[in-house]
Amino acid sequence: MKYIAPRWLPGGNLQTIWPALYSRRVFGPHPHYTRERWATPDADFVDVDWLVRAADTPAKTLLVLFHGLEGSSRSHYAEAFADYAQSHDMAFAVPHFRGCSGELNQAPRAYHSGDYEEIDWVLERLRERHAGNIFAVGVSLGGNALLRWAQEKGHDASRVVSAVAAVCSPIDLAAGGWAIGRGFNRLVYTRMFLNTMKPKALQKLAQHPGLFKREALLAARTLYDFDNVFTAPLHGFKSTEDYWARASAKPHLHTIRIPALVVNARNDPFVPAWCLPSQREVGDCVTLWQPAHGGHVGFPQGRIPGHVRTMPDAVGGWLAQHTNNQTLYG
What tens digit of pLDDT does each residue of 274-330 get? Predict the structure, then answer.
């Protein structure tokens, strides 16, 4: 990916914050979605938002987006990918991780960076209803989880999707946790995430009394602390260290057996450049794009206020090169 940041928006933090707040509407009006609620095997639900397409005929290609931490179908990057899908006559779906669709889920769990079993359940359902090509994109947390799915699925992943892409994903969770827990990142980004994650966790405790210690959650000041009290124990991990080690996609990139794109800006404030893999560390199926600039899911372009279609266009173009021309499922 050849990306050059606009001169008026220098630095990883500005390239992260400005696009999320101000650049989203340059490419057009908000996309229109319809929502489906899927009952899960553990008596819970997952909400899936589908883009209302302009075309009347069924789409040959389905683009699926797995959002990032506390994201949704209304995140700026999701709307940018929706616009990309609309302009390329693709169906577009955003499955929400538990608790991220605007309504608290029911089970004594939430979601996490290695939630590949949830992704497997969602993608298998989508495969059952779509006979053409499926491309899957994961952003930030969703990208790491998607890569973990591809790693666990092995060769069988090609039965479900044609290719996957992870955008600005913390594939080394320990390095990402270290970065977001320091200095400006802790004051701004960590506080922003905890401002929504803590209230949800307390609602979860009200649903399921005794699930964790309320005082410990209220005392959490970093994502490390939050994961130690909430994320790790609720999802079968012994501790934050165990969670970050087992959920990280980086150690297993060489095991992926389908075309996979891993995009990370080297000035991403959440993902230190020093933790990013080199091409020799990943398998032949994995392509690395590591531009010098872009921030965290930013990649703004154009004159003020800028737009955020550059990254979806580049990622979508790469995915389109891996179209499976064979007829799937009859």
Answer: 999 999 999 899 999 999 999 999 999 999 989 999 999 999 999 999 986 433 332
Closest C-alpha to 36, from 101, 91, 83, 86:
101
**Mean pLDDT on 260-283:** 97
Same domain for 131 and 240: no
Q: Where are the beta strands (DSSP E) in the chain?
A: 33-39, 45-51, 61-66, 91-95, 133-139, 163-167, 260-263, 286-289
Q: Indicate which residues carry an active-site annotation.
A: 140, 268, 296
In the three-class reduction of DSSP (H, G, I as helix; E, B as strand; rest coil), residue 132 is classed as: coil
Split into its structural domains, the chain has a count of 2
pTM above 0.85, yes or no: yes
* Alpha-carbon span 246 to 173, nearest angstrom: 9
Which candidate, 152, 161, 169, places its Cα nearest to that of 122?
Answer: 161
Sign of CA dihedral 88, 126, 166, 196: positive
Q: Which of 202, 217, 247 is the last residue of a domain?
A: 247
Q: Is the previous residue joined to 277 through a cis bond, with omega within 30 degrees of 0?
A: no
CB atoms within 10 A of CB 287: 17
Domain assignment present for residue 149? The answer is: yes
* Same domain? 133 vs 269: yes
Amino acid at 32: H
Buried b vs exposed e over 178-208: b needs ≥16 C-beta within 10 Å?
ebbbeeebeeebbeebbeebbebbeebbeee
Structural domain span for residue 143: 12-172+251-320
Cβ 242 vs Cβ 232: under 8 Å: yes
* Residue 43 falls inside a structural domain: yes
Report d(CA 180, CA 188) in Å as an integer: 9
pLDDT band at 127 (very low <50, low <70, confident <90, very high): very high
Q: Are residues 164 and 277 in the same domain?
A: yes
